[in-house]
Design goal:
Helix content: 25-40%
Oligomer: single chain
Strand order of the largest sheet: 6-7-8-3-9-10
Distance between the termini: 19 Å
CATH topology: Rossmann fold
CATH architecture: 3-Layer(aba) Sandwich
Largest sheet: 6 strands, mixed
Strand content: 25-35%
CATH superfamily: P-loop containing nucleotide triphosphate hydrolases
Radius of gyration: 17 Å
Number of domains: 1
């Protein structure tokens, strides 16, 4: 089954008098349950492609399908609903709500989804345990290390069991040991839950874990390598 299909995507930005082609006729199919890394130099197009797949940015032309449903023609409200229920996001900057505890941050998405308080708490505590944060649910982000905060962000992204998780430079602010622990967590979630992961990264360690490495340059896919199983 195809989780993501991109057909002939193009996207151009203007930077002063200069026109930058962030995506240049990009086409790619990603299977359900795959573990894919997008690799590119800065400005190579990997974050633009990730944002397009997640409905955060619209291509100028081309088509995007998630589980067979075309999404590039959806309204803003329809895209918000898609992201809420079917896509998990992990960002470089964590994006946690500082006044909420770790558990409350994880519960936030479920609260928006309309899940009741008792069930939200049960699921949040369960997923925090799964990502190695058992007993830390009442700590606020400022009381946690960068690696712990990123684990909370991962827990929030996956607690509602989305079929697809998109991660943009998730290890950029982490030391090498914490980075390895985080990517090992991703691979376990990928194996145990069948979640499709697409990760945009500069980190060679992350690339080494991927089953598929897609290299981009100047908005184009220049290499697509099937690697060892993650």
């Amino acid at each position: 089954m195809t989780a993501v299909r991109c057909v002939d995507l193009s996207k151009t930005y203007r930077q002063g008098d200069q026109e930058i082609r962030a995506l240049d006729h990009v086409s790619i199919d990603i299977d359900a349950g795959d573990f894919v890394c997008l690799s590119a130099p800065s400005g190579g197009g990997k974050t633009t492609l990730l944002n397009a797949i997640g409905g955060l940015d619209r291509p100028d032309s081309g088509e995007i399908y998630i589980a067979g449903e075309r999404i590039d023609t959806l309204s803003k409200a329809e895209l918000a609903e898609l992201r809420l229920h079917r896509i998990g996001f992990v960002f470089q900057a964590y994006n946690l709500i500082p006044v909420l505890t770790a558990r409350e941050n994880v519960e936030f998405v479920m609260q928006v989804q309309g899940v009741g308080p008792a069930e939200r708490r049960r699921q949040a505590e369960q997923i925090l345990e799964e990502v190695g944060l058992e007993g830390m649910g009442e700590r606020r982000p400022a009381e946690m290390s960068g690696g712990q905060q990123q684990r909370v962000a991962v827990a929030r992204a996956i607690v509602s069991k989305p079929a697809l998780v998109l991660a943009d430079e998730p290890t950029a602010n982490l030391d090498s040991t914490t980075s390895d622990e985080l990517i090992d967590l991703f691979t376990r979630l990928n194996r145990h839950h069948g979640t499709t992961f697409i990760i945009a990264t500069h980190d060679r360690r992350v690339m080494g874990y991927a089953r598929r490495l897609v290299k981009m340059l100047d908005g184009r896919i220049v290499d697509d390598i099937r690697q060892h199983a993650a």
